[in-house]
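Deliverable D2.4 — example input (structure tokens):
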């Protein structure tokens, strides 16, 4: 093959174009479709990015929150590792509650440091709870449930560019993220 330069270049191009060496098409995971080539799904996501679960959640929240909303409204996200995502999208509208015990010395010091008015925000019931992996098993009293369909094997995938893993959206719904909105 190396003596015939044209054949060698064509073979290398075929291997690169069709992921031949990665065997992704031949070792197909059961929970998702794997394309023969990575080119179409990658470039379609670059030029026409589909909405993912977080895009829909943020759109719903931003449409529901009027501009002059009480800044002490809180939003929570589950599980813990998805908390950076709403910070990126919502900024100071999102609050991470500190992992401190009620009545502890750490709570008293934090309350003294930031003041009672600011600390009271931590004690409020969240207006929104984003439950990305269905961690909440029972209905929450006083909350309205919204189901957001996910077309990815992992609903948080595709929103964090620092992660190396990536799954492409599927045509069928693979699961649901849940939004709980406090009813008043």
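Example output (designed residues):
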């Amino acid at each position: 093959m190396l003596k015939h330069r044209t054949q060698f270049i064509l073979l290398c191009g075929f291997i690169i174009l069709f992921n031949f060496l990665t065997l992704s098409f031949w070792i197909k995971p059961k929970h998702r479709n794997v394309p023969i080539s990575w080119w179409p799904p990658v470039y379609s996501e670059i030029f026409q990015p589909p909405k993912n679960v977080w895009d829909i959640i943020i759109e719903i929240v931003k449409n529901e929150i009027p501009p002059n909303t009480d800044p002490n409204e809180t939003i929570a996200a589950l599980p813990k590792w998805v908390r950076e995502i709403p910070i990126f999208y919502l900024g100071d509208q999102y609050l991470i509650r500190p992992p401190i015990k009620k009545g502890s010395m750490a709570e008293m010091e934090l309350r003294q440091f930031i003041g009672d008015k600011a600390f009271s925000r931590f004690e409020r019931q969240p207006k929104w709870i984003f439950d990305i992996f269905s961690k909440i098993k029972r209905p929450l009293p006083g909350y309205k449930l919204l189901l957001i369909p996910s077309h990815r094997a992992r609903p948080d995938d595709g929103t964090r560019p620092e992660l190396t893993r990536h799954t492409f959206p599927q045509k069928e719904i693979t699961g649901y993220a849940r939004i709980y909105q406090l009813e008043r």
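The CA atoms of residues 51 and 169 lie 10 Å apart.
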